[in-house]
What we know:
Layout: E1 3-8, H1 10-13, H2 28-36, E2 41-46, H3 64-75, E3 80-84, H4 98-112, E4 124-129, H5 139-143, H6 147-151, H7 154-164, E5 168-171, H8 188-202
Parallel strand pairs: 1-2, 1-3, 3-4, 4-5
Helix pairs in contact: 2-8, 3-4, 4-7
Amino acid sequence: MATILCYGDSLTWGRVPNGGRYPKHLRWPTMLNDLLGQQHQVINFGLPGRTTIWNDPFLEGRNGLAYLQAALETFGPVDILILMLGTNDLKRHFHIGAYEAAKGVEKLIEKSRIPNTHDFPVPTLVVIAPPNILSPTGSMAESFDGAIEKSQHFHQYYQDIAIRNQCIFLNAAGVLQPSDVDGVHLDTQANEQLANSIYSLIKMEI
């Protein structure tokens, strides 16, 4: 039995584009678990607003680096760690781009490989470049002002980080796009497309 930990933001958590949360069976980690079989455990540890390494002045506890070690110990031993973070890094109050988001992911990779007191083995890492941001609407528009162009560079920088750190890589923008409803979050079809793509990458790893 393999334990797969999905460490992400609202795209992993299951945010509905116009607000609310999808029921469990419509979130991509659950769909991935269905594809892998119930003898394996896929854990959805997404949190809306989570960043790679940044403290959000408006949302408490969203620094992904600060909670990763605790997550790995809580759910460990983890066989596969899936990292899909960076979308929230592009919120305008952080004043950073895809390059800095990718460097944040690299810090998460390094953290996941630090020896622990439980002698848990180092997990296999899957790095996912988040989907491109479309035209944000409603409350998303102000938060992600300027993020559309920045998000188009996720693929390049995340792939570089994944190769350098010997991680499995997936470019989400190559298989899906966010919903037109808010330009950021995933519809049910995109959740299914993401689950299928990850399954193809990791089915031989377990």
